[in-house]
Each structure stands twice: as C-alpha cells, then as structure tokens.
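Format notes (please read before filing issues)

Several people have asked whether sequences and structure tokens are stored in separate files. They are not. Every record keeps both together, in the order shown below: the sequence lines, then the token lines. Line labels are part of the format and must not be stripped during preprocessing.
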Amino acid sequence: MKTVESKYNGELRTSSVHVKSGVEIITDAPTDNNGKGEAFSPTDLLATALGSCAVTIMGLYALKNNFEIGTPSFNIEKTMATAPRRVAKLKVEISFAKYPFTEQQKQILLNAAENCPVAKSLHPQLEQELIFNW
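Then the structure lines:
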C-alpha cells in the first residue's frame, strides 16, 4: 500500500499527501537554488525527519521503560556542502524542561536518539550531532 502520493506542481514546488491521514505538505526549492523558499525544501524535510525521529523514538523508549520525557523542544541546524550539493551536517539540539532524569534514563534516551531509524538510514558521510540540554 502507498504511503505518500506526490506530484510536481511546477516552479520548483512539489506537493505530497500522506495517504492514511490525508495531511498535505509542500516543498519549495530554497532561494539559493533558484526556488521561492516559501516552504520546507526537500533537505529541510530530511533535517526535520532526523530530529522528529530522534525525539519520537526517545518517547517510545521512555514509555517502554516506564518514565516520561515531558515535552522537549528541538532545533535543527542544516549545513550544506557543494560539489556535489548535499547535506553535509545535521545538528539536532534537544532541550528538556528540567525533567528529573536519572543517569540511567539519560543513557536510554541518548541511545534511543542515536539509533533512531532515520539516523541509521542516512549516509555515513553525513555528520550527525546530537546535543542534549537536560
């Protein structure tokens, strides 16, 4: 069964619909690559996927180990390279609202984030940096 239905809309823009939910996202090429920059670029979605995956898997592991993670926020910094144009580095900074984690819980969360499916699916040359603000 299809997961996503997508189309090219012209002018360096695509639209994609998540089949199960009907939610739509739009991508634009960034302005430094002749696009409008009015929406996430495909590489922005890649960066977002890493951060979202890390935090989601952390939440999953916390549930499995009977503790809460609260509502952490996270910021993602994407660094591009040229020749070839590609994502060279993704830095994900995850901040918790002063949650009282034990050292064991912190280790569980760190391992979960580092081993999320997106992190393990990215090319080994793409540098990934995770920063935790406990």
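For reference, the curators noted about this record: The domain at 42-133 is CATH 3.30.300.20 (GMP Synthetase; Chain A, domain 3). The two ends are 40 Å apart (CA to CA).
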